Amino acid sequence: MRFTSEQRLDDGVLEREFTLGEIPGTLWTPGSAPAPLILTAHNNGLPKADPRLVARARYTAARGYTVATIDAAGCGDRPRSAADEQARAELRRAMRAGEPVDEIFESFVGPLVEKTVPEWQTTLDALLALPEIGGPVGYSGWTAVGIRLAVVEPRIAAACFFAGGYVPRAQREEARQVTVPLLFLLQWDDEGNPRQRALDLFDAFGTKEKTLHANLGGHTGTPWFELEDTNRFFGRHLK
Amino acid sequence: MRFTSEQRLDDGVLEREFTLGEIPGTLWTPGSAPAPLILTAHNNGLPKADPRLVARARYTAARGYTVATIDAAGCGDRPRSAADEQARAELRRAMRAGEPVDEIFESFVGPLVEKTVPEWQTTLDALLALPEIGGPVGYSGWTAVGIRLAVVEPRIAAACFFAGGYVPRAQREEARQVTVPLLFLLQWDDEGNPRQRALDLFDAFGTKEKTLHANLGGHTGTPWFELEDTNRFFGRHLK
Question: Which of A208, A213, A232 minimises the CB distance to B211?
Answer without folding.
Answer: A213
